[in-house]
Specification:
The complex is a heterodimer. Chain A is about 70% helix and about 5% strand. Chain A is mainly α. Chain A has one domain. In chain A, the strands form two sheets. In chain A, strands 4-3-5 form a three-stranded antiparallel sheet. A two-stranded antiparallel sheet of chain A has the order 1-2. In chain A, strand 1 and strand 2 form a beta hairpin. Among the domains of chain B are: about 260 residues, no CATH class; about 70 residues, no CATH class. A two-stranded antiparallel sheet of chain B has the order 1-2. Helix content of chain B is about 70%, strand content about 5%. Classes of the chains: A mainly alpha, B mainly alpha. The interface between A and B is large, with 75 and 62 residues. Chain B: Pfam families: Proton_antipo_M, Proton_antipo_N. Chain B: One of its GO terms (biological process) is ATP synthesis coupled electron transport. Chain B: One of its GO terms (molecular function) is NADH dehydrogenase (ubiquinone) activity.
């Protein structure tokens, strides 16, 4: 007879996670029991309170975790270190700002989501739901579930837990992507693409896990690292070099898909464009943070193991990651140049940023010991925070620039996402355009913005890890990237409508825009708070990054 | 290696005495000014310009306090690193934000705030009729603050912050009248070309981090002499690339001419007196790096020499008064860069010329602005002529600036430029060929400078009227076509700064050269240079220079005052006709110089437009095309996306497998 040992669970370390996922579950109950009129307010309050509480809880854990070095919960299902806790904090902070944008109804008193996402676009049922003023408040619990998944994804060293977390964070995102109020077909198409490709990537991840289990006999990254370290001739992985290489690459492919690295980036522009813009901001910022957390874990443990046991394999994997990093920087930057849609530009720029962070990840791999890589880890976390703030802020601005119906007294319509529609915005809404320019400049890495410190840290980590050439590629790519960031700024501030030839509609593209008046909506409470937070963060982290950098190691 | 060991003569102290502790205030004043003006918006329209002026003057006053504070110390102790706050602590690297207060930085502080204040004052009147005058002053203050960060930074990283800041301010100011598309395009071009130079600075930062483990001046300069030549050369060349971008040196010079689209006070402050000289500052500040990299130094000298000739020749061909001045700026900065590449013997003279040039070139630009003000924004010098009668103050102040830039004794430019020419004639490491080549270039450059500046001066102020005075007189003294002009002297707010700058153009050089005051003052930074012997005696060099200058003036006088200046610019074959007219002149030497000169001019102007510009736009075009190609790969079909992922994965796996086994 087998005795059952109840696992000892250290709930204190799980508390932030429990709060967030608990808020998701309670949110589902709210849908069932709270009257429709009060539902939205309840959901929003619940989500914000839960996120703030989780941030506070992470804060209380901080010194404890840094003192102990690391804390394992449930045998590595959650391994809290400065880095993973940092990733959790970043995800929570970014989610808090993103939820504010999700909740925003500045434009026309309506949020960005379909009244009933399940209705067939254009059907009478949808029309009915619209007229009844239904609101899909499920977006809040969905977001909370995604956040919970992200918090686990970036903080576990158990590959199966990581896989489950991957699915927990992905499924709500697929649904959220599909539920745009306007351009619903585009939104649903994006969601389906995201889902199919995501499933593909998940399968790769799972397959990699299985192969790695076959080679090393474990799904725990620490045990895997130990087995790989003994590697070589006579070791546990003797004669399995090929299998290990394929396993690790499949595993990485699954994670690289989530960060949007070339060649696993193909979904990014379409999904960024199709998803409701607040969701795009949330997805771009938070998913990237969580996925880089996971990537760093995999790279750190597998890398350490291989470095000790199979240096050749380690080199090969380094080269593979270098290829991915360079390809991401180059493709992201170059393809962003001819884009005409602002959301797609930001999508491609996200790919380039992935490449920049990968420079820091490679810098981490280049260190002789994991302990020597603390600053590279810090650089990764700081980068995703800096990038996330600028991204959420930028997408928040996009939600406010709307087409309006001249015939119907300037009734606000959908977002004006064509770059040329933004011309002259700087004169009509200097504050909004100024904020957007600030976020773009941060992404371009202009000093005194968070983006500069982030890039500096990432490239420095790369240089210190022996990848100076990669840092140079990064510098060149960011110099080219300035072209398209500045182009938008120029169009906003220096061009008269209708704008620049550069941004003229292409006969072969999707850029044939009807000439509708464009106006910037006056931001109201939630999105205003979000914008101010992002701007303060971008400038604050650019001028006084020291406190945050110190926290991260 | 000349006197390399004597660099860093002064120990940099971190124990800051009280007056020096005011240094942050220099930056804060204009920064706060800019912030208030930008945030207060239209409310501050009525008093905004005075606030901007006050902020700049305040910064100057603090600068004087710093100067007095430094003078109160022993010469060896005149260098302080003032720690402000920990900026980027990351693992083994700690970058703190701090200020370096020493003779070099204080010199720049005074130049920037003094000339800056004068130009603020001038702009009060110049921009009077502009609705956005407040915004203009906000940008000016922003620029001053950024420039001060640049020169006061105690690390390359903080310097980079200022570097980008001045770039941004320059961008905003060039594009200030953004409603004209040409200005916006010029602004964009300047910004982007500057970014190319910035890459150099960033790569230099990376190299310093990788090799010295720090980016502050103290660390880098202490370790540079011991580093391998390969590394210091690489860093030096990257710094030079940065300097080329900011200071409009060949091959990154093309933006400066276009930048003249900005309001004239901006051209005076940013594109003549201060920002464009940041490259010279960078090279001189990085002296220990360059001292350890003789090859990089040689490249610096070559760049300086090529640019000074390039700018001078282009300047001889431009009819737009501001563009001619811009070419001249380029050429004069070429002198400074050349001097900075000569090593300790040249550093002090590079800065000296930078200061005097800051005065007379700012004065010349303000003069040009005054002329444009009186001529309803006309910039074509072929439509000027005989203006000395209508704007006396402008004429006199401009004339003094003209004499200064020519290097006529005893005006300011003589003291600084002549020293550079002399230093260029001193053999480096005993290599006489360098002395002859670069010395001759500097010498001939002085002659061409005299020619094009005199051409500019004569075309504007002397000779016959070539604008329509609306009198309808038929006495044949001037054209009756084109818009009617009523040239008049500018208001006192504009002429006062011109007068002050003219006084500087006259006296500053002699004053600072008196007893080598300026050179001695800079010694704690630039090191003491033994007086090298030029290959020709110094007196002969002065005589030769003056002869060439006089020849230049005489030539210009004959062409542009004695002979009539065509109102319409002669095109290609007209240039040849002009050349032919000079061919039958008796002076054979002159002809030998003129014809190739004009051919070269045409080629260079053409090359500047077609090849250099073409290369830049071509690069952008290629990238755009590539992006377009790759964009098409984004078909929208999930199946092709999945195939891309799979294909990419397979490629990566195959590569990794091949490497691993």
């Amino acid at each position: 007879m087998t005795t059952f040992f109840a696992p000892t669970v250290d709930w204190a370390y799980l508390a932030p996670l429990v709060v967030v996922l608990g808020a998701g579950v309670v949110g589902v109950l709210v849908e069932a029991f709270v009257p429709a009129s009060a539902r939205r307010a309840t959901q929003l309050a619940l989500a914000l309170v839960a996120l703030v509480a989780a941030i506070v809880l992470v804060g209380t854990l901080w010194t404890d975790v840094t003192d102990q070095g690391y804390v394992d919960v449930l045998g590595g299902a959650l391994r809290l270190t400065v880095t993973t806790l940092g990733i959790q904090a970043v995800v929570l902070v970014l989610a808090l700002v993103a939820v504010l944008v999700v909740a925003d109804r500045s434009a026309d008193g309506l949020d960005a989501f379909a009244p009933t996402a399940a209705a067939v676009p254009g059907s009478p049922y949808e029309e009915l739901a619209r007229r009844k003023g239904l609101v899909q408040t499920e977006v809040f619990p969905l977001t909370m579930f995604a956040v919970g998944g992200m918090m686990i994804f970036g903080a576990t060293i158990d590959l199966l837990t990581m896989f489950v977390a991957l699915e927990v964070l992905s499924l709500p995102l697929y649904v959220l992507t599909a539920s745009a109020r306007r351009r619903r077909l585009l939104s649903q198409e994006a969601a389906l693409k995201y889902f199919l490709l995501g499933a593909f990537a998940s399968a790769l991840f799972l397959f990699g896990t299985a192969l790695l289990y076959g080679a090393t006999g474990s799904v725990n990254l620490e045990a895997i690292a130990e087995a790989l370290a003994q590697g070589g001739a006579g070791g546990p992985t003797a004669g399995m070099t090929g299998m290990v290489v394929v396993a690790v690459l499949l595993l990485l492919a699954g994670v690289l898909f989530k960060v949007g690295a070339v060649p696993f980036h193909v979904w990014t522009p379409d999904v960024y464009q199709g998803a409701p813009t607040p969701v795009t901001g949330f997805m771009a910022a938070c998913t990237k943070a969580a996925a880089f957390g996971a990537l760093v874990q995999v790279a750190l443990y597998v890398g350490t193991g291989l470095q000790a046991g199979a240096p050749d394999t380690f080199r090969a994997l380094e080269v593979a990651l270098c290829v991915v990093a360079v390809a991401s920087m180059v493709v992201g930057t170059v393809v962003a140049l001819p884009q005409t849609d602002i959301k797609r530009v930001l999508g491609y720029s996200a790919i380039a940023h992935t490449g920049f962070v990968l420079v820091a990840v490679l810098g981490l791999l280049g260190r002789p010991t994991p302990e020597a890589g603390v600053d590279a880890l810090g650089a990764v976390v700081f980068y995703v925070l800096a990038y996330g703030l600028a991204t959420i802020g930028a997408f928040a601005v996009v939600t406010l620039v709307r087409e309006s119906d001249g015939a119907r007294d300037g009734v606000v319509l959908g977002e004006a996402t064509q770059i040329r529609q933004w011309s002259g915005l700087g004169r009509r809404s200097p504050w909004l355009a100024g904020l957007f320019a600030l976020f773009l400049l941060s992404m371009a890495g202009i000093p005194l913005t968070a983006g500069f410190i982030a890039k500096f840290g990432a490239f420095r980590a790369g240089v210190d890890g022996g990848f100076a050439w990669l840092a140079v590629v990064g510098v060149l790519a960011s110099a080219v990237a300035v072209f398209f960031y500045v182009r938008i700024v120029v169009i906003m501030f220096f061009a008269d409508a209708p704008a620049d030839d550069d941004a003229a509609p292409r006969p072969d593209g999707d850029a044939l825009v009807p000439d509708v008046p464009v106006r910037a909506v006056r931001p109201r409470a939630p999105v205003l708070v979000a914008l101010v937070l992002c701007a303060l963060g971008v400038i604050g982290l650019g001028v006084f990054p020291a406190p945050v950098l110190n926290l991260l190691g | 290696m000349l006197q390399g060991a004597q660099l860093l003569a002064a120990e940099v102290s971190t124990d800051v005495p009280s007056p020096i502790g005011l240094a942050p205030l220099v930056i804060l004043l204009p920064l706060v000014g800019a912030a208030v003006l930008l945030l207060a918006g239209r409310r501050s329209d009525r008093w905004g310009h005075w606030l901007g002026l006050a902020a700049s003057v305040g910064a100057f006053v603090v600068g004087v306090v710093l100067l007095v504070g430094l003078l109160g110390q022993d010469a060896e102790a005149r260098a302080y690193d003032q720690h402000l706050f920990d900026w980027i602590p990351a693992g083994t690297l700690d970058v703190s934000a701090g200020l370096r207060v020493d003779p070099l930085s204080v010199t720049f502080v005074l130049l920037v705030t003094f000339v800056g204040s004068l130009i603020h004052l001038y702009s009060v009147a110049y921009m009077e009729h502009d609705d956005d005058r407040r915004r203009f002053f906000a940008y000016l203050n922003l620029f001053v603050a950024a420039m001060l960060v640049l020169v006061l930074a105690d690390s390359y990283l903080l310097l980079f912050v200022g570097w980008e800041g001045v770039g941004l301010a320059s961008y905003l100011l060039i594009g200030f009248w953004y409603r004209e598309r040409k200005n916006a395009v010029a602004a964009k071009k300047a910004f982007i070309m500057n970014r190319v130079g910035d890459i150099g600075l960033i790569v230099a930062l990376m190299l310093m981090l990788a090799n010295f483990g720090g980016v502050d001046f103290a660390t880098v300069h202490a370790q540079a002499p011991a580093a391998s030549t390969g590394i210091t050369t690489a860093i030096g060349l990257m710094l030079l690339l940065a300097a080329c971008g900011k200071s409009a040196q060949v091959p990154l010079q093309a933006w400066l001419g276009d930048a003249m689209a900005g309001p004239t006070p901006v051209s005076a402050l940013i594109h003549a007196a201060t920002m464009v000289t940041a490259g010279v500052y960078l090279v001189v500040r990085s002296a220990p790096v360059f001292e350890a990299a003789p090859d990089a130094q040689l490249v610096v000298v070559i760049v300086g020499a090529v640019t000074l000739v390039f700018g001078a020749i282009v300047g001889s061909a431009k009819d737009d008064i501001k563009k001619a001045l811009a070419a001249s700026t380029m050429s004069q900065i070429g002198y400074m860069i050349l001097a900075a590449g000569l090593g300790p013997i040249g550093y002090a003279f590079a800065i000296f010329h930078l200061v005097t040039h800051g005065f007379f070139k700012a004065g010349l630009f303000l003069g040009a602005g005054s002329v444009m003000h009186g001529m309803d924004d006309q910039v074509d010098m072929r439509r000027f002529g005989g203006l000395s009668r209508y704007m006396k103050v402008t004429f006199v102040t401009f004339g003094l600036g003209w004499l200064a830039i020519l290097g006529v004794p005893p005006f300011s430019g003589f003291w600084s430029k002549d020293k550079i020419i002399e230093a260029a004639f001193v053999p480096v490491d005993g290599q006489e060929w360098r002395a002859w080549v670069f010395g001759t270039v500097a010498l001939v450059g002085a002659g061409i400078t005299a020619y094009y500046m005199s051409r500019l001066f004569f075309m504007t102020f002397t000779g016959r009227r070539r604008w329509n005075d609306g009198s309808g007189s038929l006495d044949g003294t001037g054209p009756q076509d084109g818009p009617v002009r009523h040239p008049h002297e500018s208001p006192a707010l504009m002429t006062a700064p011109m007068v002050v700058l003219a006084v500087g153009s006259v006296a500053l050089g002699g004053l600072l050269a008196w007893g080598d005051t300026f050179v001695t003052w800079l010694e704690p930074v630039t090191g003491h240079a033994e007086h090298g012997e030029p290959v020709l005696p110094a007196w002969l060099l002065i005589v030769l220079t003056l002869v060439l200058v006089l020849a230049g003036i005489a030539l210009a006088w004959r062409q542009y005052t004695v002979q009539a200046v065509p109102v319409v610019a002669p095109h290609g074959n007209a240039l040849t006709r002009a050349a032919r007219r000079d061919l039958y002149q008796d002076d054979v030497n002159e002809n030998l110089v003129m014809l190739p000169g004009q051919v070269v001019t045409r080629t260079l102007v053409h090359a500047d437009r077609e090849v250099v510009d073409g290369a830049w736009t071509g690069l952008a075009g290629t990238l755009g095309l590539l992006g377009d190609r790759w964009r098409r790969a984004q078909t929208g079909y999930v199946r092709s996306y999945a195939a891309t992922m799979l294909g990419g994965l397979i490629v990566i796996v195959v590569v990794a497998l091949a490497l691993a086994s």
